[in-house]
Design a protein that fits this description.
- The chain has 4 helices and 5 strands.
- It has 88 residues and is of the alpha+beta class.
- The protein has one domain (2-79): DnaA, N-terminal domain (GMP Synthetase, Chain A, domain 3).
- It has a 3-stranded mixed sheet with strand order 1-2-3. Strands 4-5 form a two-stranded antiparallel sheet.
- Helix 1 packs across helix 4 (56-67).
- It starts with a helix and ends with a strand.
């Protein structure tokens, strides 16, 4: 269902300025999807909070359009690892 998250991100571009999209939405990465939940990761807590405070309603609206029903949208904070090593 990574394609669904890509579709949602593409739709969000129509609602927010390009610089805001690149700063806050583009870095969100698909983690998983099950029947009633979509999980993405954010690079840090500040980014997660910003997305929740300013873009959650837009995201939830697009999630509902793509899945055809209410689906819980959740953001986790990535663990900072890349290729098994902690980034410096």
């Amino acid at each position: 269902m990574k394609a669904a998250w890509t579709e949602i991100k593409t739709a969000i571009k129509d609602y927010i300025p390009g610089h805001s999209f690149r700063m806050w939405i583009e870095p969100l990465n698909y983690i998983k999807n099950d029947k009633d939940c979509l999980v993405v990761s954010s690079p840090n807590f500040f980014s997660k909070k910003r997305v929740q405070d300013h873009y959650l309603s837009i995201i939830n609206s697009e999630v509902k359009k793509v899945f055809g029903k209410n689906c819980e949208f959740s953001i986790t904070v990535s663990n900072g690892k890349r290729n098994g090593k902690i980034s410096e």
